[in-house]
Amino acid sequence: MSLRIAVLGAGGRMGQAVVNAIGDHDELILSGALVRPGSTHVGRAAGPDVAYTDQPVGALDGAEIAIDFTLPQAFNSNVTACLEAHCPMVIGTTGLSATQKIRLRDVGRDLPLVWSPNMSIGVNLCFHLTELAAAALAVDYDAEIVDEHHRYKRDVPSGTALQFGELIAAARGQEFDKVMDFRAPGKSRQRHSGDIGFSAVRAGTEVGKHTVMFSSDSETVELRHRAMHRGAFADGALRAARWLAGRPAGLYSMTDVLGL
What we know:
Elements: E1 3-8, H1 13-22, E2 28-34, E3 45-47, E4 50-53, H2 56-60, E5 65-68, H3 72-85, E6 89-91, H4 98-107, E7 112-115, H5 121-137, E8 142-149, H6 159-171, H7 176-179, E9 180-182, E10 196-202, E11 208-215, E12 220-227, H8 231-244, E13 250-252, H9 254-258
Parallel strand pairs: 1-2, 1-5, 2-4, 5-6, 6-7, 7-13, 8-10, 9-10
Antiparallel strand pairs: 3-4, 8-11, 11-12
């Protein structure tokens, strides 16, 4: 059974990875490719019988699912366009504000959505394992999260790192905002008991590497994931798209997609 997919943010690095991945599957059809207004991609061929466009209505015409890898600035307009087109969405955009996350929940009442700060199947497995570890080890173990990305990564810490932190806090019965401690110049280096520490590296071409550490006086437990290329995120997004097709309205996560 075929599935017609529109890619929003098709001109970006992740958008291109999704467009290429769709071409690797006979049952998936690229039906639209949205790029930012004024992009040099406009009018060029994105796939068989599909040209890049900067018009959301045109990109969504005939689509059964939209996959959105854009910037937070495009989030509201993309969600509005999909609502008007009654097109379910898989959203991999990171750096969403608290207000935008509230809108996700609101839109989920009318439209099937899958949102995750990281679409990698492996990372989402690590999310689940992190919850288990945090619940078992509790605040007796210091929690530290390190995220490493390429020099062009804009959000610090990464959305994935923040998700790890939120899961740890929830599993330990903590309020995340009160225990999050980002390692930044000028801050005291002394950590407080129960804090969840964050560090970030932005350099080179690293696609994405995350390490979650739980350390006591006598041992350290580490969970680590490294994406070798963006295909890991594209594969997860396509798996989510297949799973979402035909689902009722709701805000779903990759945990739902993977059945964890």
